[in-house]
Amino acid sequence: MTNKIREYDVLGIGLGPANLSIAIALEEQAQTHSLSYCFLEQKPQFEWHGGMLLDGTRMQISCLKDLVTLRNPMSQYTFVNYLHAHNRLNTFINLGSQHPSRIEFNDYLTWVAKQFDSVIHYNQRVIDIQPIEEDGEVTKVKVTSSNANGDKTVRIAKSLILGMGGMPKLPKQFEGLTNTNVLHSSQYKQWKESTNNLPVKPKIAVIGAGQSAAEIFVDMCNRYEEGEVHMINRRFALHPADDSPFVNEIFDPEFTDHVYSREQPERQEILNHFSATNYSVVDMEELNAIYGRLYLQQVTRKGRHKYLRCHEIQEAGEKGQQVSLRFNDRINNQQSWQDYDAVILATGYRYDEFNQMLNNMRPLMSESSVERRYRLPMKNKCHVNIFLQGCCESSHGLSDTLLSVLAVRSKEIVDALLEHKALLSTEKMSA
Ligand SMILES: Cc1cc2nc3c(=O)[nH]c(=O)nc-3n(C[C@H](O)[C@H](O)[C@H](O)COP(=O)(O)OP(=O)(O)OC[C@H]3O[C@@H](n4cnc5c(N)ncnc54)[C@H](O)[C@@H]3O)c2cc1C
């Protein structure tokens, strides 16, 4: 007996905050349109950046920029309602901060995700998308997903909403290394909890200059007080994240219109100008704490943790159980090798995975760039909507990979979907 292939109006790929926000918008905005939809997520359950869910880490954004408040503050899925439902609203207010711990925000997101269980399929990694052509027209796609055992499932969809987030970016010097103590920051927590082959006083390299590098450096220093943890950066200094109020306005949803309406060189100028809000920057409090910690080592003459500035990694190789790094120290103009028991690469993410995912759709895509409402323009014979989330930074601005615009973006995408559906049914009636 063969299973019947399910067909959906809308299929979401990935279930992070972006598509979770779409799930809410579909429920709240599209109630009367009887759309069928589902979301496919590769993980076995909901988790928001589980590899970095460390004690003491906080949100870099106000909790009012949750999945829905900026679109519909009366929604039952707001962060405030989550607090209320868990009987913590007063206590949270008493904390006096709009920046909850990441552990709490993950709990909020999981609470929302649970309410959409009936439309989410976990343990489903999308591996292929194929256009379905009938009479020279493409109105549907075939989406194949695979579970952890390699069993494949096929679903048909009329519209796709990609929300796959970023993929770990690894410097090329580390490609091909097999040592399990060389890892990307996205795997950090799982590695930390499972690793047991490090010496008692290990020597550890944390590569990077951003928030994740700083959090991991602090966490490793706390765990291995008598070890030697190096935070390694090719720049001179750690720089603070600019979250001052005037600058923060670039994350207001209206700013997306501003960026989108500019020509590409000007968009790039805006991205460069404000990059210190998000890239290779560290929360000021964290940065001061790191400086204070390293200073105290000088006072007590205890501790061997270091910040290695202007160190460029030229080469990485395996040496027994260890990893050897060849540095170019640009301050002292010296080349040197150092051996480490573990290397943690807090080297960021890339957001171009959609290209690979949409490979088979490419002949159907038009040359023009993504629309303001995040839809990929298609050639005339293709009527499938494909929306992109989190990979439109170059056209829509710095907020695209973050949480700031989620609530409003999901409205824009669902509006575009509903208009398309209305248009199709008008065409059908007049045919
Ligand atoms: C440690 C960390 C902390 C952060 N903190 C903040 C913050 O405080 N404020 C802020 O604004 N931003 C923050 N960010 C930025 C972050 O990108 C956003 O918070 C948010 O996670 C973006 O949501 P998303 O749904 O686009 O992507 P993601 O959260 O990455 O979710 C994408 C989902 O898609 C799934 N997926 C990918 N490929 C497939 C596939 N082929 N098939 C099925 N499923 C797939 C993934 O498993 C994942 O669950 C942080 C990022 C990190 C790494």
Automatic annotation (TrEMBL):
UniProt keyword annotations, A-Z: FAD, Flavoprotein, NADP, Oxidoreductase
GO molecular function: oxidoreductase activity
InterPro entries: FAD/NAD-bd_sf, Lys/Orn_oxygenase
Pathway(s) of this molecule: Siderophore biosynthesis
Gene3D superfamilies: FAD/NAD(P)-binding domain (3.50.50.60)
Single GO BP term: intracellular iron ion homeostasis
Cofactor(s), names only, from the UniProt record: FAD
Family: Belongs to the lysine N(6)-hydroxylase/L-ornithine N(5)-oxygenase family.
Name the UniProt record assigns to this protein: Lysine N(6)-hydroxylase/L-ornithine N(5)-oxygenase family protein
Originating species: Marinomonas arctica
